[in-house]
Amino acid sequence: MFRKVLIANRGEIALRVICACRELGVRTVAVYSEADRHSLHVRFADEAICIGPPRSAESYLNVPAVISAAEIADVDAIHPGYGLLSENANFAEVCRASNIKFIGPPPEVTRLMGEKEKARQAMKRAKVPILPGSEGVIQSEDEALDWAKSVGYPIILKASAGGGGRGMRVVRSAQELPALYQAAHIEAANAFGNGDLYMEKFIERPRHIEFQVLADQHGSVISLGERECSIQRRHQKLIEEAPSLQVTQKMRDEIAKTLKRSLENVGYQNAGTVEFLMDEDGKLYFIEMNTRIQVEHPVTEMVTGIDLVKAQLRIACGERLSSILPHPIPIRGHAIECRVNAEHPEKFTPSAGKITVFNVPGGNGIRVDTAQYAEGIVPPYYDSLIAKLIAHGNDREEAMQRMKRALGMFVVEGIHTTIPLHSRIFEDEEFRAGKFDTKFMERFFERQKAAQ
Ligand code: MV4
C-alpha cells in the first residue's frame, strides 16, 4: 500500500478520502486555500499545506502549487476527488512526469473520454448502444442539416468538449437549425476553447441512469450496478438512488457485460461512471463517461457493501479486482442520497456564511458525509454542497422512511439549505411512486405552486 497520499480537494470528499486512507494505514496530506484554514480536512489529515488564496484558480486548480506540495511532503500518490483537477489529463501527465501516482485512469483514457464524440464512437465500436447521431464532429452547418435529416428531428447539438449540460441546443426543425448551430458553436468555443459539436437524436423525457465501474491495472473491469439520477435541477443532481426501479437484473447483467468488454478495450483503470439515458421504452443509450469518483458514489457503497475509495487506492497500488471484490457483487436493499446544498430555498443561489447550529442525524441505516460543523464557515468561493445524507433500507420504502425522519433531525441554522426542499420531495406522491424523469423537478415546482 502507499505510504503517503496527498488529497487535492476540499470539503466532504477530501474527508472521505482521508477516512479511506486511515483505514488502510496510509498517511495523508491535505492542501488548502486561505479560506479553508479551519476546515476539517485540514484538521484530520496528518499534514496540511496551504497552497494559495481562496479562489480555486489560484489554489485547488493551481497545478504547480499542488505538485510542489506533493514534492515537499514527499507523497507516493495524489487522490483528486471529484471536480477540480479530477478529470484534467494534463494534471495526470504532470503527476506521471513527477513520479507521483495519479489515483485515476491514465491521462490518455481521461483525454479520450473528455472528447465526448470520440468517446461515443469508441463505445459504438465496442457494441455499447448509442443514440442515432453524427459520426465524428460536425464540420459545417450543411453537414449538421444532412445529419439531422437522416436522424430525424428533434435532435440535440452537444459540445464535444462539454458535458454536464453546457453548450447544448435542442433543434426541432431545419428552419431553426442554422441559428442554434452557430449559437452552440460559439458558446462551446468560449466555454471550452473548442467549438466542436456533435449531434444525437433528442429524447424528450429521459431518465438519467449511470453505471459504476472499477477497473484494475491488469486489464480487468467490473460493473457495480447502476444509480438513478433523474432528480436534478439545472443539471445539478438533488437526489440519487441505487438500484434503479427501471433496471431489471437482465438489463443490469447485459450492460455489465458490454461495459466489461468496451472498457477493457480502451484500457480503462480505476473508478469510473458510465452515463446512460433511458428512453420512454426503457432502452438504455450511452451518452458519456466520467473518469472520477462521483459525488453520489455512497449509494452504490451502501447497496454493495464495497468501499469505492479504498478500492481506488488498492487498484492504484496494483491490486487485482479478484483479490479486493466479492464475486458476484451483491446488491442488497435500497439506498437514497440527498445532496444538502447551502442555497437560498427559492432562488437556488448560494448561501454562504457562518453555520450556527449543525445537528447531524444518525441511527439505523443513516450515513452523513460532510466536512461541516457548528460554528463552521461556508465560503462563497466553492461548490455549495455541504453534506450528503444517505439512507439505506431493506427496500425503497424503508430507505424513504429513514430519509424522511433523518431530514427532520438534520438541523442547520445560520445559512439556508435544501433540507426543507428535500423534505417536501419525500412527501410527493410522484416521487414516492418512483415515477420520474429529468423533468421531474419542473413538474414538482408546478404542483407545489398549484397547492399553495
Ligand atoms: C440528452 C437529452 C436528451 N436527448 N441527450 C444533459 C446533461 C448531459 N450530460 C446530457 N444531457 C442530456 N442529453 C439526448 N440525446 C437530455 C439531456 C438532459 C439531461 C440529462 C440528464 C439529466 C438531466 C438532464 C436535464 C436536461 C437535459
Secondary structure: elements and pairs:
Layout: E1 4-7, H1 11-24, E2 27-33, H2 40-44, E3 47-52, H3 63-73, E4 77-79, H4 89-97, E5 101-102, H5 107-114, H6 116-125, H7 141-151, E6 155-159, E7 169-171, H8 177-192, E8 197-201, E9 207-215, E10 221-233, E11 236-242, H9 249-265, E12 270-278, E13 284-290, H10 297-304, H11 308-316, H12 321-324, E14 334-341, E15 353-354, E16 357-359, E17 366-370, E18 377-378, E19 385-393, H13 396-409, E20 411-413, H14 419-425, H15 429-432, H16 440-451
Parallel strand pairs: 1-2, 1-4, 2-3, 4-5
Antiparallel strand pairs: 6-7, 6-8, 9-10, 9-12, 10-11, 11-14, 12-13, 14-19, 15-18, 16-20, 17-19
Helix pairs in contact: 4-5
The site of ligand MV4 has 17 residues, from strand 8 and strand 13.
| Shape descriptor | globular
Structural class: alpha+beta
Question: What's the CATH H-level superfamily name of the largest domain?
Answer: ATP-grasp fold, B domain
Here the CATH topology of the largest domain equals: D-amino Acid Aminotransferase, Chain A, domain 1
Figure out the total of helices.
16
Average pLDDT score: 96
Helix content, binned percent: 25-40%
- The tally of domains stands at 3
Largest sheet: 8 strands, antiparallel
Architecture overview:
The structure is a single chain. The chain contains 16 helices and 20 strands. 35% of the residues lie in helices and 25% in strands. It has helices at 11-24, 40-44, 63-73, 89-97, 107-114, 116-125, 141-151, 177-192, 249-265, 297-304, 308-316, 321-324, 396-409, 419-425, 429-432, 440-451; strands at residues 4-7, 27-33, 47-52, 77-79, 101-102, 155-159, 169-171, 197-201, 207-215, 221-233, 236-242, 270-278, 284-290, 334-341, 353-354, 357-359, 366-370, 377-378, 385-393, 411-413. Helix 4 (89-97) packs antiparallel against helix 5. The chain is globular, with a radius of gyration of 22 Å. The chain is of the alpha+beta class. The strands form 5 sheets. The chain has an 8-stranded antiparallel beta sheet, sandwiched between helices. A 5-stranded parallel beta sheet has the order 3-2-1-4-5. Bound molecules: ligand MV4. Ligand MV4 binds at residues 131, 156, 163-165, 200-203, 206, 208, 232, 235, 277, 287-288, 438.
